Amino acid sequence: MYPESIKNIIDCLKDLPGIGEKTAERLAFALIGFSKEKLTSFSDAIIAVRDKLTNCEICGNISEKNICNICEDKNRNSKIIFVVEKAKDIALFEKINIFNGKYHVLGGLISPLEGIGPEDINIDKLLTRIDSEGTEELVLALKPSIEGETTMQYIKKVLENKNIKITRIATGIPIGTDIEYIDSMTLEFAFEGRKDI
Amino acid sequence: MYPESIKNIIDCLKDLPGIGEKTAERLAFALIGFSKEKLTSFSDAIIAVRDKLTNCEICGNISEKNICNICEDKNRNSKIIFVVEKAKDIALFEKINIFNGKYHVLGGLISPLEGIGPEDINIDKLLTRIDSEGTEELVLALKPSIEGETTMQYIKKVLENKNIKITRIATGIPIGTDIEYIDSMTLEFAFEGRKDI
């Protein structure tokens, strides 16, 4: 019923996560109301995502250069590496501005159920980095899920003979959340991770 | 902190209605994960919105041709015109498939407060159509708001000397909505529009 061009843009928008038919229609009509200049910029921005972005050769971060800004930054402490699942996670930690080390993006988590093994994620390069960069601490900032735990245990195991401190970020109750909504496993972690006040 | 290409796509996405910073970031990273082919289609779809869409010369509907499919359709009853505010509204009525007449898009509503008068919306062309197409009924499918009511009253007034039936779609309580959430003006309309059961 819609003209082809409207159908196509609705279909493209529906490919985005969390965008259903109705939202896609609403966004499509918003786009139709955009100026020609704005539509050109939008299309150009998508083409730039297609053509300019690559993964940093060292850490796997998304970057416009072969080596990302963080890996290139000589002022950052290269002795400590934050291990994250996705490149987007780097942005989250960078925003809170508490960490001045380097990052390493695994690009996934080990999941025997889904057939994802250690060889399918970016672990080999992490091991090489640890040797070549003389890493002293590895902070595992992975999701506390079966896959996250499996991946953390795997990394701990392959590094057990190396003299390197391995930590994980705390699992517990998020600020502002009522304890009644917290699952029992998180409560257990929160109890084990209790601190003196 | 993000590379330029990520910043740009986030900015473009943020221009869409209901998309804030966080959602824009989430969508941008989803786009980064798209295949090159998908990104090309997406960009092409936006360019098609920019270059191919126009407004139907007769009714104002969004169309790829000068005359839209509905206006061109000889099987539709041209004696009855559904008057809507926005082109998107046509799609809503077409979906429920209850109406086989023609449409007319005003492209806005009269709003003295915002300085929008009858001359700023697509009413003149409606009057010409009524004469040339021999319209017998005008169904006003406008938002029941001050602007909608003003526009409906204006249309009624300019057509008072013509032999044409003017109706408006019912104002009342939407299906599934608890009456306690309904404003008093809607309740008044619902009462006035009561029907025998």
Summarize the structure.
With 197 residues, chain A is of the alpha/beta class. Helices cover 44% and strands 11% of the residues of chain A.
Could you explain how this protein is built, in words?
2 copies of one chain form a homodimer. With 197 residues, the first copy, chain A, is an alpha/beta fold. Chain A folds into 2 domains: 4-52, RecR Domain 1 (Helicase, Ruva Protein, domain 3), CATH 1.10.8; 75-192, Dna Topoisomerase Vi A Subunit, Chain: A, domain 2 (3-Layer(aba) Sandwich), CATH 3.40.1360. Chain A contains 8 helices and 6 strands; from the N terminus they run H-H-H-E-E-H-E-H-E-H-E-H-E-H. A 4-stranded parallel sheet of chain A has the order 4-3-5-6. In chain A, strands 1-2 form a two-stranded antiparallel ribbon. The longest helix of chain A is centred in the N-terminal third of the chain and has 17 residues, at 36-52. The model of chain A has no long low-confidence stretch (mean pLDDT 92). The interface between A and B is large, with 51 and 51 residues.
Give the helices and strands, then pairings.
The structure is a homodimer of 197-residue chains.
Chain A: H1 4-14, H2 21-32, H3 36-52, E1 54-55, E2 62-63, H4 69-72, E3 80-84, H5 87-96, E4 102-105, H6 124-133, E5 137-140, H7 146-158, E6 165-168, H8 184-192
Parallel strand pairs in A: 3-4, 3-5, 5-6
Antiparallel strand pairs in A: 1-2
Mind summarizing the main beta sheet of chain A?
4 strands, parallel
Q: How many angstroms separate the termini of chain A?
A: 65 Å
The coarse overall form of chain A would be: globular
Count of discrete domains of chain A: 2
CATH topology-level fold name of the largest domain in chain A? Dna Topoisomerase Vi A Subunit, Chain: A, domain 2
Instruction: Determine the mean pLDDT of chain A.
Output: 92
- Regarding CATH, which class of the largest domain in chain A? Alpha Beta
Second-tier CATH architecture of the largest domain in chain A: 3-Layer(aba) Sandwich
Series of secondary-structure elements of chain A, N-terminal to C-terminal: HHHEEHEHEHEHEH
Biggest interface between chains = A-B, 51 and 51 residues
Spatial order of the strands forming the largest sheet of chain A: 4-3-5-6
**Proportion of residues in helical segments of chain A:** 40-55%
Q: Proportion of β residues of chain A?
A: 5-15%
Compute the CA-based radius of gyration of chain A.
21 Å
Derived structural class of chain A: alpha/beta
Oligomer: homodimer
